Amino acid sequence: MAARAGLPSLARWLDTAGNRSFGRFAAGAARRAGASAIWGYDNCSLDAFRKLGDGSTKRILDVTIAPRRALNRVMAELHSGWPQFFIPIRREIPEHILVRTEDELSLADLIVAGSPFVRDTILAEMKDSKLAERIRVLPYCFDEQLFGTVPPPHPRPEGEPVKFLFVGGIGPRKGAHLLLEAFLNISPREAQLTLLGSLDMPIATFARYADRVTHIAQVPRSQVPQVMAQHDVLVLPSYFEGSAITLLEGLASGLALIQSRNAGLGGTEDTGIILDQLTVEAVERALLEAMSDRERLLSWRRKAQDRARDFTFDRYCANIRKLMIELGI
Fold first, then answer.
1. What's residue 70's pLDDT?
2. Residues whose CB falls within 8 Å of the CB of residue 184, separated by 6 or more in sequence, listed in order
3. pLDDT score at 100
4. Are residues 306 and 317 in the same domain?
5. In this structure, is residue 163 part of a structural domain?
6. How far apart are the C-alpha atoms of 89 and 103, rounded to whole Å?
7. How far is residue 283's CA from residue 263's CA, in Å, rounded to a whole number?
8. What is the extent of the structural domain holding 40?
9. Which residues of the chain have pLDDT under 50?
10. Which of 24, 39, 237, 289 is the most buried (most CB within 10 A)?
11. Closest by alpha carbon to 118, among 33, 240, 9, 301?
C-alpha cells in the first residue's frame, strides 16, 4: 500500500520490519518444534538464520534473484547506454540490503538457486572458495492448474503474421528496449508483438513504438494462459533474473522461446533460440529465424510442451526430496 501510494522509503521500512519480526518468530517456532531445517528466501531470512545460530537446525536459503550488487552494476551500465528507457528517478538497491543478502549467503548451510546464472553470479560475487560446496540449482515449477491443460499447438494459417509475446515488466532489465528496437526493422505483415505487463520506461520513449506493438497493461492471472495461447513465440531477452517462471508457463502453453541465458531455465535448441548476445542485432536475427521456417517453428512449439514436463510441481517436490536426503534430513 505504501509503495502504491508513492512512498517507497516507507514501503522498504515496513518490508524490512516485517521480515525481521517474522524471521524471529520462524526461528523460535523451529526451535520449539525441533525442526531439522528452516527454509527461507533471500532478503527476509537473516534474522531467522542468526537466531538459530550454529545449532542442529539446517539453514536453507532460496535465492530468487542473482546477487543485487551485480544487479546495480548491470543497471548502471544499461543506463549509460540506453538512458532514454529509464524513468527519471532511478534508485539503486541500497547498501544495507546488499549487505543483508550477502550475510544470508554466508550463514546458509545450503543455498538453492533457480538457475545456473544465479549460482554462477553468487560464486563470482562472494569469492568464497568453499561456497560452491553449499550451492545447488533447484529448478522452479509452473502452475499446472492454470497451464497444465493447454491443447497442443496448431500451425498458424498461411499468410498470417507470426505472433510474438513479451511478458513481464516492460523495461531495460528484461531487455524490452532490445525487442522494441528490433521490431522497428520487421514488417507488421510478417510479425506482430504483444507486450503484457506494466510499463517500466518513460511514456514519451514508448510512444515511438506504440503503433508497432499491442500493449496489455494488466490482466487477471487466470487469463494469462488465454493470452499465451494466441501467440507463437515468447521472447525474454533479460539481462538479470532468478529464473523467470513465465518461460515455464510459455513452454506449457506451447510457445517457442527466444530467451537470454540470464533469463533462466526453460529454453533449449529443440524449443527455440538461446541468445548468445544481448544486442538489438542478435534479437532481430532470432526473430527473423523464428519467422523464416514455419515448420521448424511448429516443431519448437510442440516440443515445448514436452519440455514443460521437466518443470511440474511433482518434479519440483522430487528435487527437494533429493536435497533433503543429501542433507540427511
1. 96
2. 209, 212
3. 93
4. no
5. yes
6. 28
7. 14
8. 8-141+313-327
9. none
10. 237
11. 240
Residue 80 included in any domain = yes
Q: Is residue 125 part of a domain?
A: yes
SS3 170: strand
Query: How many Å apart are CA 244 and CA 235, to the nearest integer?
Result: 12
What tens digit of pLDDT does each residue of 184-232 get? 999 999 999 999 999 999 999 999 999 999 999 989 999 999 999 999 9
192 sits in which H/E element: strand 191-196
Tell me the longest C-alpha to C-alpha distance in the chain.
Answer: 66
Residue in the structure block whose three cell numbers are 508513492: 6
Q: What is the pLDDT of residue 128?
A: 82
pTM for the complete prediction? 0.92
Amino acid 11: pLDDT: 87
Say whether both 15 and 111 belong to one domain: yes
Q: Residue 222's pLDDT is what?
A: 92
CATH number at residue 219: 3.40.50.2000
Would residue 1 count as lying in a domain?
no
User: What's residue 259's pLDDT?
Assistant: 98
Concatenating the DSSP letter of every residue in 208-245 gives: TTGGGSEEE----GGGHHHHHHT-SEEEE--SS-S--H
* 92 plus 197 within the same structural domain: no
